[in-house]
């Protein structure tokens, strides 16, 4: 009997010890699952929007020049990069065929004119009918129009500069057979310093930009100079090639040492007000140019994985434009160890 009581007491002690050990392990595991983090209060504020982008310098009068008629290029008088003057002859077709067409049209007109004079005299003598007289007159008028068209084509067998500027590209060469309207040169009027910058922006940035918004433009060609500019045009559709919206900036002052195609860095200050949140880089996870996610908490005990929309990324911070309206605290450190619903302990 005493032996049985001893066994019961030992068993009870073992059970109590096991329960105590299990409770301690659970408390240690619970403490281990609580992740220490630091937080930042979220405050929505009015933001001064500065859009950073890039583009290329161009002018507002870039033009592709071509011949009115097709033929063989006889002579090209300029090369790429040459300065040109208004009405300067840049290229000429071989005139053999065109001159022959002009001669034929001239001979046809002279014949039609003689026929008309002869029928007119016969009509006055009541020998030719009114219909014959009218047909001869119409034939002479048609021949005159054909001669005028041939002379017009002859005058456009030369390419002349439309304004002072530069040859940007020479697309064809001497001796080449070229069709009507095919480009031979690309020119601009850069000598007048009417410089512009064409910039591609996203749909969200496009919505913030207004005509007349001021901008600063810089380029590595003039590293110590910042060019003042303003938004002169907004495209109403996306670029078919890249899918971006095009913005055109016009430089306010004349600028030297620029060339068409130079790379430009642009800062556009928008006049439209924008509200959002400023957050540090460390708080944003898996972000791209449009979206990302952050961890937030409202009770300082558990976290929520929150998808946010990115307005822009600056050198110091990330601007968030939506996704945080009902959130109070942002996790700014310890995020790498978190997942949605993780338990946290806020530390200072």
Automatic annotation (TrEMBL):
Record key words, sorted: Coiled coil, Signal
Asked whether the UniProt record includes Signal among its keywords, one would answer: yes
Q: Which GO terms describe its molecular function?
A: efflux transmembrane transporter activity
- Which Gene Ontology terms of cellular component type are present? efflux pump complex
Coiled-coil annotation reads 102-136
Against InterPro entries, the record matches this protein to: BSH_CzcB-like, RND_pump_MFP
Which segment of the chain is annotated as a signal peptide? 1-18
Domain CzcB-like barrel-sandwich hybrid, chain residue ranges per copy: 68-186
Any Pfam family from its record, for instance, is BSH_CzcB
Family the UniProt entry places it in = Belongs to the membrane fusion protein (MFP) (TC 8.A.1) family.
| Protein known as | Efflux RND transporter periplasmic adaptor subunit
